[in-house]
Hints:
This protein has 273 residues and is mainly α. 77% of the residues lie in helices and 0% in strands. It has 10 helices and no strands.
Amino acid sequence: MLAGLRGTRRLEHQEEVPITDHLEELRNRIIISAIAVAIGFGFCFWKHELIIEFLNRPLPPELPVPIVLGVAEPFTIALKVALAGAIVLAIPILIYQLYAYVMPAFDPDHDRRTWPYLVGASGLFFIGLAFGYFAVLPPALSFLVGFDSELYNRQVDAGNYYGFVVQILIACGLIFQMPSGVFVLTTVGLMRSSWMRKNRRYAIFLLAVVAAALPSGDVVSMMIIFVALLGLYEISIMISAFVERNKGEAEAAEAAEFDDAGDVVKVADVEDV
């Protein structure tokens, strides 16, 4: 199996291979992704105390650390936190495996785009995590913990809290992939900047729905997420226009080369006569 994984390669654009080769490549890429997550899981489980302490920091200072009620809950929480951390650490590899499997079918110039796209998509995911941790979680937790606080003896359940935090962080990381998704869709011809500009009003409505659907729970956090989504949408329009412009220049260059080659052939024919 390891020898087969070492032999995993990206298929070239329009390369004709049997369906079994596609399935074998898909299997190998899934296995590589699973190995990356497993290695990350081992590391994160080893350091799960640091991760839990890091996740506790956005809590209001007047609250004690989250509590557990079940005998096995500390162990299961450590497993869940380690798995979430492993997925975060493996994101660059997961993005690369998906990109390397899909893009050769659409983009003949994918080799030149691989590393810039990988760095950009991975960077956007981690920026989204930082945005969720520093910009979304503090106001969300402050509102939720402080709501009707005089009516309750407020204690934070550990399982519920860490699940909430992980959902917020992963959701913010994913929504920051909007420019990456638009880049891919524009590259394969399924998205155009003019279409995005024309339908901006509908996009704003959908972005508002997405911001409201995220489990932040308060108006301030929803507005922060909504403003971030609007900014990402405008950036995505610029990226789409940039890709279209590059594609147009490449097509024009190819057409010019074809015309030059045709002129050479015509001149050669005349000389022969």
